[in-house]
Structures are given as C-alpha cells and as structure tokens.
Amino acid sequence: MLDQAQGNSLDIVIMDGSEASLFLRDTLTIGGTAILRGETADGPGLGFALSVASGLSMCPRQLESRYLYDRQGSAIFDRITEQPEYYLTRTEAGILADNACRIREITGPVTLVELGSGYSLKTDHLLRAWLACAPSVRYIPVDVSEAALCEACRIICNLHLSARVLGVNGDYREAFPMLREVSPVMVVFLGSTIGNFEPEDESRFLAELASSLSPGDFFLLGVDLVKEQLIIESAYNDVAGVTADFTRNLFARMNRELGSDIDLSVVEHVARYNPLRDQVDIHARFARKQIVRVESLGKSFAIAEGEMVLTEISRKYHLEACVPSLEGFGFETEAVFTDERNWFALILLKRTDSLSESRERRT
C-alpha cells in the first residue's frame, strides 16, 4: 500500500509483512529511497492517548519519553545539540570522525541500521567511511518522527548519490525482524539513547536485539560516561532554556493531539542528577493546579500545585561495568573508542555464535 509523503518525493509504504519485505529487498538491491511506516509511527492516535492516561494514573506520575519526539520536539532537540552545555553530541561526533574508518576496517561492508536516527547528522561520518571503501552503502534509519526521517533521507541522498536508503518510521523493535534479511549488518545506537531506558527495559532491549542479529553481525553503541555532577546537570539545564522548551513541548503536544487544555506557562522544567543511581531525572513541575484532559478517552486528571511528572531519565555509565554487562547478552567487544577526557564512549560489539552461553553468564 503506497502513500506519498507530503512536501517531498519519497515513497511512504505502509508496513504489512510480505509487502514490506519485498520493498526492503527492492530498495536496498536496486537502489532508491523509501520509508516504511510501522504501526508505532509518530502521529496522533489511540496509542498516545492510552500512554498518557496510563502514565498519569501512576503514582508517581510519568510519561513515555518516546512521545517527546514529534515534529516540533525533534526540531527542538536538534537545537539542544547545538547548545554549549550539551557536550554529548559534539563529543560523540568527534569520536566518530576520528574512528569511522577504523570501525569500517573491523566490520567490513555491512549494512548500517541506525536506531533513533533523528536527522542522521553524526552518521554522516560512518557513511563517508563506508563510501570511501565501496561504490555504495546500504543505510536503514529508524525513527518515530516521520518529519525527521524524511529530512534525513533527503539530506543523505543529496550528499551521497550512491547511498541506498530505506527509512523505517516506527519504534526500534519494528526494525528487528528485518535484521536477518539485511545481514551482515551493524546496528548503530548513538547519543547514549540507551540511557533513557530503565534497567529492566534496557535488558529486554538488548536481549531482543541479540536474538534478532545473526552471528558475526555488529552493534555500535554510544554511552555517556559518569563525570562531574555540575557538567552533567548543566547539559540538561542550558542557559538558553531550549531543554525546558523540549520538556514543555510534550504538554503542548498533548494539547494539540489530545485536547488536554494545559496552561503551558505553569509547566516548569526540572532536571537533577542522582549520583547514587548515576542518572538524570527530568520532570515537569506544575506551578499551579491543572486538570489534564484526554478527550478521546473521556478521562481527566487533577495535577496538584507543585506536583512533578517524570518525562525522561538519562542514565550514565562506567565502562568497567557496562562492557561486561553487554557481553552477557551475547556480544563480544571488538573495540572501545573514547574522547581524550573520557566523557563519552563508542563500544563496538560483535554478536557471538551462541546466545545460550551468554544467558548462562547473566544468570
């Protein structure tokens, strides 16, 4: 089932099993650019409403961070990465620039699959390294924001005419069934996005990813490392207030799509680092009482003055603990790349032949 993306010439294909598989092979073999829209693609719908209602029913209240990234949220996050306090993007990009060719030497000409690709700006270092060694590259960006995905595909195809690009508009896990079809592959998960998962969700993600990869496939993971508290907290409390706008946009999205009728002027951004958990907790604090409505479900929630709603976490890592933990999911470490200050790391892993041994090590 074909649909045309508004404002661009990219084909949007509704993912429905056999059709998606056929389109995957055609696009990556013959060439061209297309986007598969998955069931969890960004956009207004029942999923967002149910998620908000569920989160606001919890005690303490929380919202899923994936819904931060609508069209407006993705654009705001792009501005966050440009703020002087936000070291993560610049540092990781520098590591990629210095080591992309070495990564290509280790992996060989594998297909690149990027989870949470956004605008794919940092990935350009990998694409250039791949194209320096071969006439073409196969790249599959995966993101919940259709707007970011379309823009990324346009940019890549303008910069790299021989790139074969197939975007997946949906949740990370919607790409997992494709991995064996495009193997050999390197899954790329940058930005320390894995730190947005709670520990149990991280374990589930890694187990599902390892089970979806073939032996010999690769996984390139970016992780933000533990460092001075002031440096970390400043990254999530920029002076320009862009991160505060990012948090506030989640509630603006609720107004737009769910009819929540929230006074955005009372939504305050609060981000604090907890050194005992090596984690930044990001909340929205309500300066005045609000009645938050979810019109499609006929529900409303009273948020008290001063009450805080968790919108996102960002966990930080110690390499000496992180690497063995990753290996316990069926990977072996090929290389670890860091910056000169050891603020950030890229870990290159390879899927081992046996998952049963790794499960035994975890237990």
Approximate helicity band: 25-40%
CATH topology of the largest domain: Rossmann fold
Biggest sheet strand line-up: 1-2-3-6-5-4-7-8-15-14
Structure summary, number of beta strands: 15
Number of helices: 12
Averaging pLDDT over every residue, what do you get?
Answer: 89
Descriptive labels:
15 strands; Rossmann fold; disordered N terminus; alpha/beta; 363 residues; three-stranded antiparallel β-sheet; ten-stranded mixed β-sheet
Structure explained in plain terms:
- The longest helix has 21 residues, at about 85-105.
- The protein has 2 domains: about 10-35 and about 90-225 and about 320-360, 3-Layer(aba) Sandwich (Rossmann fold); about 45-80 and about 235-315, no CATH class.
- Mean pLDDT is about 90; it is low at about 1-10.
- Helices cover about 35% and strands about 25% of the residues.
- Strand 7 (about 185-190), helix 8 and strand 8 form a beta-alpha-beta unit.
- The chain is of the alpha/beta class and about 375 residues long.
- The chain has 12 helices and 15 strands.
- It is globular.
- The chain has helices at about 20-30, 45-55, 70-80, 85-105, 125-130, 145-160, 180, 200-210, 230-235, 240-260, 320-325, 355-360; strands spanning about 1-5, 10-15, 35, 110-115, 135-145, 165-170, 185-190, 220-225, 265-275, 280-285, 290-295, 300-305, 310-315, 330-340, 345-350.
- About 45% of the residues are buried.
